[in-house]
Design brief:
By secondary structure, the protein is an alpha/beta fold. Helix content is 46%, strand content 14%. Strand 8 (273-279), helix 12 (285-298) and strand 9 (304-309) form a beta-alpha-beta unit. The longest helix has 22 residues, at 315-336.
Length: 357
């Protein structure tokens, strides 16, 4: 099937992106710098608390930063970091828990309910938001409030929603200094951005090439536990929200114990699947071997099997370089389908129905 859009036609791309999602993506490195500045200027101190665990509570684009934090903290933090995507908090949350309540709008009803429960349980609370009811609650309760700029789609505010949570953990002595990793991450994002910007021709633009590959196919994204798993989740979510298309993700090595078997039938559908594996130098050596063997076993059963390596010197840089590439890919895929990537009408419709439910 012929592709509908020339991804090198800059004026056409602009006309199909009235919500300026490509412009928002281009601003991610600067957003990260601002996120560092905002977090470093915020006073965070809980002298009466001894923390046994950390919980990031949020939904959607406001929760993905928690997943990046969970993966990064897995090798850096001596206490567990969990992500909560629910009205209720886990039973273990209590006076020895640090709860980071994250809602870009400040009005996510699940996050507001979880905030109230954390307060009632005596947990240490920090709110991260651009305003709304969450900001009001934090101010009224005298809890630390990190206010970030509004006006973006939550999924386009990853720098604001992730970096402050990481710096908070460092300020509280829960993870080592993150300055070097953040510097590497931001410089790597600048490099990735230059290669995938709209004015970079498709022949040299990995995101445009991936979008063409995904067009009229079903993207399946595989990540690796403890390294690229959140990036894979992010690719799936961004393709759903920006491209308005189905996509799926899974994680190695777990998928070698189930999903790999599901590649025998139906053969016709399998040929519509474009499988992408997100890789990192940090992956366990046995997982690296598993990827090689898995490609040998199923590589010809699907439409394509592509491996993409994270860039940069640090785990932070490698995670976010892959994420940034996926963000650009999802927007170009939307534009190929003739879809405005910014609105999420079905989510808005659901929220409106919940108001009267």
């Amino acid at each position: 099937m012929e592709h509908l859009v020339d991804l090198d036609d800059i004026e056409l791309l602009k006309s199909r992106d009235p919500g300026h999602m490509l412009e928002a993506l281009a601003g991610l490195p600067q957003q990260c710098r601002e996120g560092v500045k905002i977090a470093r200027e915020q006073e965070i101190s809980f002298p009466r608390f001894t923390f046994n665990n950390v919980v990031v509570t949020g939904l959607g684009g406001s929760a993905i930063g928690g997943d990046f934090l969970r993966v990064y903290a897995g090798q850096k933090c001596r206490i567990p970091v969990a992500v909560n995507r629910d009205y209720r908090l886990p039973l273990f949350v209590g006076e020895n828990t640090l709860v980071l309540a994250v809602s870009y709008s400040g009005n996510t009803e699940e996050t507001l309910a979880a905030y109230d429960e954390a307060r009632n349980k005596g947990a240490a609370l920090v709110a991260l938001t651009s305003g709304g009811k969450l900001a009001e609650k934090a101010k009224n309760d005298g809890n630390p409030l990190i206010t970030i700029p509004g006006g973006l789609q939550p999924r386009a505010a990853t720098g604001y929603l992730f970096i402050p949570t990481l710096i908070i953990l460092h300020k509280l002595g829960l993870v080592p200094d993150v300055s070097e990793g953040l510097d590497d991450m931001i410089s790597t994002l600048e490099s990735v951005g230059r290669k995938n910007t709209p004015d970079m021709h498709q022949a040299k633009n990995p995101a445009k090439q991936l979008a063409k590959m995904f067009y009229n196919k079903i993207p399946v994204i595989w990540g690796v536990s403890g390294t690229t798993e959140t990036a894979a989740m992010r690719w799936k979510g961004q393709i759903n929200e920006n491209s308005k298309a189905l996509a799926y993700y899974n994680i190695l090595p777990e998928l070698n114990h189930n999903e790999i078997v599901g590649t025998e039938v139906p053969e016709q559908l399998l040929k519509e699947i474009e499988l992408v594996v997100l890789r990192s130098e940090d992956d366990h050596p046995r997982v690296q071997k598993r990827i090689e063997i898995t490609k040998e076993i199923i590589g010809e059963r699907v439409s394509g099997f592509t491996e993409i390596w994270g860039e940069g010197k640090s785990l932070l840089a490698r995670m976010f370089s892959l994420t940034y590439l996926g963000d650009y890919t999802s927007v170009y895929l939307a534009l190929l389908y003739g879809i405005d990537p910014s609105p999420v009408h079905l989510i808005t419709q659901l929220k409106n129905k919940l108001v009267t439910a």
